[in-house]
Amino acid sequence: MCLPNFIISGFPKCGTTSLHYYLAEHPEIFMPKQKELHFFTNKILSRQIAGKGDKLALKTHIRNFKEYSKFFSPEKNFKSVGETSPSYINYPELFNEIKNTLSNPKIIVLVRDPIKRAYSNYLHLVREGREQLSFAEALAQEDKRKKQHFSDFWYYKFNSSYYEKLVKAKEIFSEVLILTQEELMNNPEETVKKTYRFLEVNSEFTPTLLNKKYNPGGTYSNNIITRTIFKPSSTKNFIKKIISVKPWMKDILNSITKKYKTNPKAINKETEQELKKIFRKEVKHLGQMGVEIKQWGNYK
Questions:
Q1: What is the dihedral of CA 221, 112, 81, 39, to 10 degrees?
Q2: Which of 30, 106, 126, 130 could in theory staple to 74 by disulfide, Cβ–Cβ 3.0 to 4.6 A?
Q3: pLDDT digits (tens, 9 = 90+) for 221-242
Q4: Calpha distance 24→47 (Å, rounded)
């Protein structure tokens, strides 16, 4: 058994799935068969069950250390062993536990224009058939949903609040790499090579999957095919438990759903301006921290 020496720790809807698959291709990197183990946050997430589909989403989470450790038994020695759980970065109170259990792992965090991330998060739940409110209504309900113990995936503003969590991560962990979804999407080869250098593996290796994006967002027409693919189910959870979901499987699903993709409604101006006020100071601090925010919207 060997435990992870690095973690892709979040944030949700920022490209963690694509980065997971890019890194898994590297011959010196081992990634477990299941993405999103959520082992360290399960104690928190298991209490967040009030939202539609929340209990079902918990079924794939790993609940104990013995089960967690079984995911890290590669047949050969790898220089880097990692896992991807986008919930970890949202709970700084667990950082010391993660550090101590995994002997101070390297931490990779992906961020994204906070408004676009929040809206992508919202659209994800819409296409799963879970979110019924408008974006503005859902934002207004966030505090109420927290009190009612909805899963944190319903907290659109919370998941786009990066700065203080990143500051805490840098305080606790010795090595933290912050990437943006925009640089991963627009310049994937250089971004992945930067990640390889951070992990101290061969940075000359180029993944074959770089021209592909995984878990693309957006909206889709509502029909039996898209409902079957996007709606969570016990059957899907069972399959994830027994079969390693390969990139080619995602490619097939993406090719099927692509023909049903539609243009999402734009965020109304009033909601957008409200979110800019909320995130203005945050974005400024991130820029001062050195995060590449040039491709984000105007938050001044």
A1: -70
A2: 30
A3: 888 887 878 777 777 776 666 6
A4: 31
